[in-house]
Amino acid sequence: MKFAMKRSLVLFLLISVAALTSCRQTDLGEGGSKVSGSAGPAGAQGAAKELVTCDKPIATIALSENPNGYSVISGSQLPPTPLPLIRVMAQQSGCFRIVDRAAGLRGTIQEQTLKDAGILKAETVPKKGEGIGARMTLTPSLSFSEDNAGGGIAALLGMIPALRDWAGVASGVKFKEAQVVLLLTDNETTEQLAAATGSARATDLGVGGIVVGKVLGGAAGWGITNEGKVIAAAFLDAHNKLVVQARALSAAQIR
Predict the structure, then answer these.
(1) What is the pLDDT of residues 170-192, one digit of tens each?
(2) Per residue, what are the HEC states of the chain?
(3) Spatial CA neighbour of 192 closest among 241, 137, 147, 113
(4) What is the per-residue pLDDT across 206-247, written as a single tens digit (0 to 9) for each?
(5) What's the maximum distance between 2 C-alpha atoms anywhere in the chain?
(6) Using 50, 70 and 90 to split pLDDT, how confident is the model at 78?
(7) Phi, psi (deg, nearest 5) at residue 231
(8) How far apart (Å, rounded) are the C-alpha atoms in residues 111 and 50?
(9) For residue 21, what are the contacts with CB-CB under 8 A and spacing of at least 6?
(10) What dihedral do alpha carbons 35, 38, 42, 47 form, nearest 10°?
(11) Which of 122, 227, 231 lies closest to 178 in space, CA to CA?
(12) Percent of residues, the chain, with pLDDT higher than 70
């Protein structure tokens, strides 16, 4: 009797959550991932509390796309690149001075080209030779991303007679896991100066298409979120570990 009452209570909670999620609302500044907020002259705003920070930059770095891309076998479509999030995170930490070697650099070259063609006023375009060199290059890599690392829970419960009735509920439990790598290379010597792995895991307690979020202990409903969020958290973990190594570099290595 008590068991039936517990099942009824769980069903009621799930239906309540489903009803609440059907009421859509747009909240400005809400959502996102572990990498959020802003960075700039006003300092880091809204950064993750787990982010390791520095009193002053360790070195000037450029961020480089992984030449092999970030395609992995996964059940979800990944963002095309994690570089924008890494740039925000690295600037928020204050541990690195970042120079743009992508769209920003192309914009600078375009302005110089237009000036040389006589289209732009010379005094409105930055002078040549004013750019800052990068002492190091930071390259990210996505080692693996698993969309359902906990798919065997239902089968395991189904083997236990007393818990067979819960196998259907457990079939909705999924884990998202990601492991990433950050590599820091000396641009003068090409020596790899530091490397760090990062990992993160999230649990989706979705049942029959319903996501159980705050009802059960504040668990995050990853069934309705982007897989990129757990990857962002993994890069945050890797960044924190890399900063520890970068702080140990000698003055000659970061001059």
Answers:
(1) 444 466 788 899 999 999 999 99
(2) CHHHHHHHHHHHHHHHHHHHHCCCCCCCCCCCCCCCCECCCCCCECCCCCCCCCCCCCEEEEECCCCCCCCCCCCCCCCCCCHHHHHHHHHHHCCEEEECCCHHHHHHHHHHHHHHCCCCCHHHCCCCCCCCCCCEEEEEEEEEEECCCCCCHHHHHHCCHHHHHHHHHHCCEEEEEEEEEEEEEECCCCCEEEEEEEEEEEEEECECCECCCCCCCCCCCHHHCCCHHHHHHHHHHHHHHHHHHHHCCCCCCCC
(3) 137
(4) 544 433 333 333 223 223 345 778 888 899 999 999 999 999
(5) 87
(6) low
(7) -70, -40
(8) 39
(9) 210, 211, 224
(10) -20
(11) 231
(12) 60
What token pair was written down for 235?
A: 């890069």
Tokens at 24, concatenated = 């859509």
